[in-house]
Amino acid sequence: MNNRIGILCAMLEEVSDILKIVKDYTTQTIGCRTYYEGRIAGKDVVVVFSRWGKVGAAATTTMLIDHFKVNEIVFVGTAGAMAPNLRVGDVVIGKRFVQHDFDCSPILPKYEIPFLKTQFIVAQEKEVREATAAVAKFLEPSYFQTCFTESQITKFQLNNPHFYVGDIASGDSFFSTNEQKENLLKAIPSILCVEMEGAAVAQVCCEYETPLTVIRVISDSGDDNASVDFGKFIVDVAAKYSQKIVEELLAIKTND
User: Fold this and answer.
1) Mean pLDDT throughout 88-95?
2) Active-site residue identified among 14, 17, 72, 248
3) Confidence class of residue 134 from pLDDT cuts 50, 70 and 90?
4) H-helix or E-strand spanning residue 228
5) How many domains does the chain contain in total?
6) How far apart are CA 189 and CA 183, in angstroms?
7) Domain that residue 108 falls in
8) 140 given a catalytic annotation
9) Helices (H) and strands (E) in the chain — how many of each?
10) Which DSSP category does 236 fall into?
11) Annotated catalytic residue within 90, 130, 195, 220
C-alpha cells in the first residue's frame, strides 16, 4: 500500500511554497481548513495549514489521520531559539516533545500527559534519521546558496547554518522576553527551541500510533533581542526552507 503523508505547515506562506511542488492537487475545505491532496516525489500527500496553537494544530492533525487516512505526519515551521548556540537560519529536528505549559500537579508530575504516563513524547528513529539526511542535504553550501539571493543571505545572516536534533517545547504563548526564555530553560534545560504546536501534534500522533517528523527553522532568539523582521523572514526564508526540506525528505522516503 502506498504511504500517504500529511504535511502540516505552521504558516500559510509555507503552504503556498509547498504547493508549488505538489502535482495535480485537489482541495477540500473542512472545519475552516483547506486540505490540498496531491503528490510530491511520487508520494501521496495532504498539505494543510496547521493553525496556530495546540488546540488548532491537534484538531488539524486528528482530521489528517482520521478523515484523510494519512500514515504519517511531517510538520514544518519556525521556532524561537532556546539553546544559546542556535542562530537564525539554523534547523532543529525534533527528537522529544514537551508541552511546557501543561501542569496537572500535584495529581501528576509537572508536564506529564495523563494516561500516557510521560512528560516527553519521543519521535521514532527512522523519522529522525530521514529528516537528518534531508536537512543535511539542504544545508550543504552548494545547494543552500542556490536557494537564496546574496542579499537575502546577508540580510538574514544565513551564513553557514547548522542543524540540531533534540528537544522541542510547545505552548500557547509566543516567546518574546528574556524572562520567558530564562524561566523555560531553568525548568527544562534540554530544550533547543520553542514553538506553539509540535508537542500537541506529537500527542495526537502518539495516541494514533502515527509516525511524526517535526522540523523547525530558527526565526528569532525567543527573547527581546530579536533583530530579524519576522514577517519578511517567513516569506523570504522560512517558506523556502519548508519547501526544499519537504521535497528532499519525500525523495528520501520514495527511495526507501
Assistant:
1) 96
2) 14
3) very high
4) none
5) 1
6) 10
7) 4-255
8) no
9) 9, 10
10) I
11) 220
